[in-house]
Amino acid sequence: MKQTDEIATGADGTGAIAEVSPPPGIPALLVLCAAHFMDAVDLSDVGVALPAIQRDLGMTSGSLQWVVSAYALGYGGFLLLGGRVADLFGRRRAFLTAVAVFGVVSVLGALAPTGGVLVVARLVKGVAAGFLAPAALSLITTNWPEGPRRGRALGWYASAGACGF
After folding, report:
1. Are 30 and 66 in contact (CB under 8 A)?
2. Which domain holds residue 71?
3. Is the model's pTM score more than 0.85?
4. Confidence of residue 2 (pLDDT cuts 50, 70, 90)
5. Confidence of residue 157 (pLDDT cuts 50, 70, 90)
C-alpha cells in the first residue's frame, strides 16, 4: 500500500491514521538556505577584495593566494568528516555549532591586523563551512518527507548556493 504525507497505513493493515510529524516550516528552510548561500559567497567573493586586502595588510602576491586557498582547503578537506560528525552527534547540533564558529571567525577575519591572521581565519571558516554544508543538506533530506516537498526544499537549497556563487 502506498503512503501519503498525511496518512500512513497502520501496522495492522487497518488503514488507521498514524502520527506523521509535519516537515519544518519555511523559516527553517530559509535558515538552511542562508547558510548555504553564505558558504558559497565566502568561497567566491574574496577575489574582488584581493587588491584592497593586499594594500591594507601589505601582503605579497604569493601570500595573497592563501587568502583564497585556505578557505577552499578547509571547506573541501572537511566535508566528509563534517557529514560523519553530523551523523554521530546530531545534525542540528553540528549545524548550529558550525554556524556559530563561522560567524565568530568571520568577525575575527574582518578585524585581522595581518595577512597571517586573515589566512588562519579563512582556514578555520572553511573548516566550519565543511561541517555546516553536510549538516544542512542532511537536515533537509531527513526532515522533509520524500516527494514534492523534499524536492522543492532541495531546489531552494541548491538555488541559494547557486546565487551565492
Report:
1. no
2. 26-164
3. no
4. very low
5. very high
